[in-house]
Design goal:
The protein has 684 residues and is mainly alpha-helical. Helix 15 (385-405) packs parallel to helix 17 (454-471) and helix 22 (578-587) packs across helix 25 (630-656). The termini are far apart. It is 75% helix and 0% strand.
């Protein structure tokens, strides 16, 4: 089996070689080049059998020659490589030496850096200690310049720098030092706190003395910079209760004394021009044309003073601008960025006087001089009801105004209230006396004719003035008066009722004829009504009250108008005996013939009608001509004409009736329409 297997292998090898030879391409470029190279091995004999048999040997010899040549040439390369290797070894030694040197240098550098780092840490530690010490000293101590400013710097021109900046710095240092002692209880802090406290006492003492001096010398025309410094000074002194309370007393006392002086000067002398932006004013006593203007100017001056004083006190004691200024200074100097608290150590709110209380104390001195002058005015310069009425409205208005702007009790408000009560008493007395005078007046005080009396004209003037005051009133006194003394309805009733009663009494005593009496009453009542209507027509606030009185007077006028028309009609008809004919017609039975009755005969009726027609041509009505009001005069004439035409119409109807046996064509010249036209009435 082994032999067989070996034979198969050899056979396979031979087959493979044969297949390779068969597959070899003899025409390829590589094969051709190889054959060309081998052809040079055959020599001169060429390619023969022997040469081909010796080809293997030649090839091997050729390979040996090539190898020898390669060895000869490679020997130089080997020498060069050996030289390079020697140089590399020498370089390696040098590099190793250099590496050792670098390692030693690195070790030395590492030691140097460690020492340098240690020195840097020590340097930073000492620098931090130095910074902490400097920060501590800057926080809890003052510089020599700041101490000098606290003790010697002027305060008047320190609104933006200098004294107040140093005082703010001192206060911050003092508060920080006190906080440090409370938290850490450093012994050094007590000494610093004592030093800062002494400096702070000196600063606040100087500040209080300056405020005291400023309060004693304060004036109306003080500069704005002084006011700012005063605001800052008071704002700082809030931290010292005793100083702050004294500051309030000093400022209020000086302002009270100054206001009394200014009031007296404004009333008696007037103010001079203080600066370019202000104008001089004349004395109130000179400019006050009457009592009302005089009292109004004084109260207006006090009202303005209260407003300006409120602004001044608010700026000095309650200024948010000054507090904001000091807050900004403290915040700017606070190294930790903590906002300073201005309220630490300040006066408690229940110990402070409010703005209203301070203002009440400032104007306390104005009450007495104001009361004296108003009372003198009421006694010497007020003589009429309307003047007292106007001043009462003025006092009530300012009393309400002062209560609103100054709710606490004060002398000015008390003075105005007392003067108002005095006005109430005077007005009530004057009104009652005037009513009594009207009721008790005798006939001689009235006019002889039927025109409006002087007393009525005076009442009309008083009513007009009272309503004018009411329409232009500043307050609601005329509506809210609980005692009804100033109530407009009560005032009008106290004047009109006595006037009407006095007019009736006077008319009954003076005039025997009802027509004259009616004419007299119409003239007087119409005058009062016209005064009421004119005052109401000016857009006043008393329409409801006056309309009631106008309706009452209209009823009164209507009553007396009927009387006047009846008397005038009777007078005109009497001239032609038409009144008698009308009377006979009224009592004549319907079944009787009128022409056959005594007094109604055709001749008698004819004479009366001719006289009546003649009277129509003479249109004069002297009685109605004395009626002063043109509207009432026209109304009376119209009503009289209507009554006359009505009487004529009755006679006309009687004559036109056939049963009465009158010759209408002979008796009647004008128809009823003609008579109406002649009387000035419409023909319809």
């Amino acid at each position: 089996d082994g032999i067989m297997d070996g034979g198969l292998v050899r056979e396979n090898v031979v087959d493979a070689r044969i297949k390779k030879v068969l597959n070899t391409r003899t025409d390829s470029v590589t094969m051709l080049e190889s054959l060309d190279a081998i052809s040079s091995f055959f020599g001169k004999k060429g390619n023969n059998v022997e040469a081909r048999r010796a080809l293997r040997q030649d090839l091997e010899l050729q390979n040996i020659q090539v190898a020898k040549k390669f060895l000869a040439e490679f020997d130089d390369v080997r020498n060069t490589v050996l030289s390079v290797d020697t140089n590399v070894r020498r370089i390696e030694q040098e590099c190793q030496t250099m590496s050792e040197n670098i390692s030693r240098a690195n070790e030395n550098m590492k030691n140097f850096m460690q020492k340098a780092s240690m020195l840097e840490e020590r340097r930073n530690f000492y620098l931090k200690q130095s910074s902490d010490i400097e920060s501590f000293l800057n926080r809890f101590q003052l510089s020599s310049e700041e101490i000098d400013e606290i003790h010697n710097s002027p305060i008047s021109n320190s609104a933006t720098n200098g004294f107040f900046n140093s005082l703010t710095r001192l206060r911050q240092a003092y508060n920080d030092c006190k906080l440090m002692i409370e938290q850490y209880q450093y012994n050094a802090g007590f000494e610093l706190l004592d030093i800062l406290g002494r400096h702070q006492s000196v600063g606040y003492q100087r500040l209080f003395e300056w405020v005291k001096m400023k309060s004693e010398n304060i004036s109306v025309d003080s500069s704005e910079s002084d006011d700012v410094v005063l605001q800052l000074a008071v704002c700082y002194l809030r931290e010292i209760p005793s100083y702050f309370v004294q500051c309030q007393d000093l400022v209020v006392s000086s302002r009270r004394y100054l206001l009394v002086q200014r009031f007296v000067v404004a009333v008696t002398q007037g103010s001079e021009e203080l600066s370019v932006g202000t104008t001089a004013s004349r004395a109130i006593e000179v400019t006050g044309r009457d009592a009302n203007h005089y009292v109004s100017d004084m109260l207006a001056w006090i009202h303005q003073v209260i407003a300006s004083e409120e602004e001044f006190l608010r700026a000095v004691f309650f200024s948010s601008k000054a507090k904001q200024y000091t807050n900004n200074l403290l915040i700017a100097q606070d190294d930790h960025g903590k906002e300073a608290n201005l309220e630490n150590g300040t006066v408690k709110s229940d110990e402070l006087l409010s703005l209203e209380e301070l203002l009440a104390r400032c104007v306390h001195g104005l009450g007495r001089p104001l009361r004296v002058r108003i009372m003198q005015t009421l006694e010497n310069r007020v003589h009429t009801i309307e003047e007292v009425y106007a001043i009462s409205d003025l006092l009530y208005f300012y009393s309400s105004t002062f209560k609103k702007i100054l709710p606490v009790e004060n002398s000015v408000q008390s003075c105005v209230g007392e003067c108002l009560e005095e006005c109430r008493t005077i007005f009530s007395r004057m009104l009652s006396k005037y009513s009594e005078n009207l009721l008790n007046s005798n006939v001689a005080s009235f006019a002889v004719d039927t025109l409006a009396t002087p007393s009525c004209k005076e009442c009309g003037k008083i009513i007009t003035e009272v309503l004018r005051v009411h329409n232009s009133s500043l307050s609601s006194l005329m509506f809210e008066d609980k005692n009804e003394v100033f109530n407009i309805e009560h005032v009008l009733g106290s004047i009109i009722h006595p006037l009407l009663q006095a007019s009736r009494t006077c008319g009954n005593n003076m005039f025997q004829e009802k027509g004259d009496m009616a004419l007299f009453m119409l003239n007087n009542v119409a005058l009062v009504k016209r005064c009421l209507a004119n005052s109401t027509g000016e857009g006043g606030t008393c329409v409801g009250v006056t309309s009631t009185w106008i309706d009452t007077l209209t009823t009164e006028i209507s009553t007396w108008m009927d009387v006047l028309v009846a008397e005038e009609t009777q007078r005109i008809l009497q001239r032609s005996d038409m009144d008698k004919i009308s009377e006979l017609m009224e009592v004549l039975p319907q079944d009787m013939i009128a022409s056959e009755q005594p007094g109604l005969t055709p001749d008698r009726v004819s004479d009366s009608l001719r006289a009546f027609y003649s009277s129509l041509c003479s249109t004069g009505t002297p009685l109605l001509g004395n009626l002063h009001d043109s509207d009432l005069r026209d109304q009376a004439q119209n009503l009289t004409a209507i009554k006359i035409s009505s009487s004529y119409a009755q006679v006309y109807d009687m004559i036109m009736q056939p049963k009465n046996k009158y010759d209408a064509k002979l008796l009647l010249t004008h128809s009823v329409s003609d008579v109406k036209v002649l009387l000035g009435l419409s023909s319809t």
